[in-house]
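Input (structure):
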């Protein structure tokens, strides 16, 4: 990750592409600009793929935070809290299946169409939405029944796992349209899983 600089850059990390972004003299930290201009996969030196090396991702995140944590920078006389926020945003986005898929969809849309679209606004799978409605009804009906609630949780997690695999195949095969549609479905299932888990915690 070392790089020779023609100018006296005080980059807080050594990165082959984004070193200047983390230099207090070259660039003031800006979360909005970070989201627009930095490729999260490239930031973490990972292939742009739905399948990521989570061990490597965690390792590099910890490396960056050792250099960019606000307390560490403050001890060096630097008030740059947003650097740590940028690193954390990219990390959490790539760490989770759903947000990683959403980020990949947006990235591919920008590369293919020059702009990010919103596939969820045009999603028209009536059968899937009926299935989600039925699961939601089951979830509400199981609120006072721990065994029934556990069944809904298992069903939603099983459905989500199947879609994670399908999304991965679609990205691997560069079937962008299918990847977009499956990512929207995965969003619905992720929300259902979160709500079911929360309901389970309340029941206990």
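Output (sequence):
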């Amino acid at each position: 990750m070392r790089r020779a600089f023609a100018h006296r850059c005080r980059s807080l990390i050594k990165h082959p592409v984004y070193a200047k972004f983390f230099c207090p003299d070259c660039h003031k930290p800006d979360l909005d600009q970070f989201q627009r201009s930095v490729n999260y996969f490239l930031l973490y030196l990972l292939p742009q793929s739905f399948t990521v090396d989570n061990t490597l991702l965690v390792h590099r995140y910890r490396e960056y935070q050792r250099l960019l944590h606000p307390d560490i920078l403050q001890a060096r006389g630097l008030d740059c809290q947003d650097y740590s926020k940028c690193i954390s945003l990219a990390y959490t986005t790539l760490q989770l299946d759903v947000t990683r898929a959403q980020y990949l969809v947006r990235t591919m849309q920008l590369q293919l169409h020059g702009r990010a679209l919103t596939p969820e606004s045009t999603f028209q799978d009536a059968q899937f939405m009926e299935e989600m409605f039925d699961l939601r009804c089951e979830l509400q009906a199981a609120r006072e029944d721990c065994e029934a609630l556990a069944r809904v949780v298992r069903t939603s997690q099983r459905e989500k796992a199947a879609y994670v695999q399908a999304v991965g195949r679609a990205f691997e095969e560069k079937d962008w349209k299918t990847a977009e549609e499956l990512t929207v479905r995965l969003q619905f299932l992720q929300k259902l899983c979160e709500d079911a888990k929360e309901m389970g915690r309340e029941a206990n």
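Notes: Confidence is low (pLDDT under 50) at residues 1-7. Residues 20-95 form a domain with the Helix Hairpins fold (CATH 1.10.287.110).
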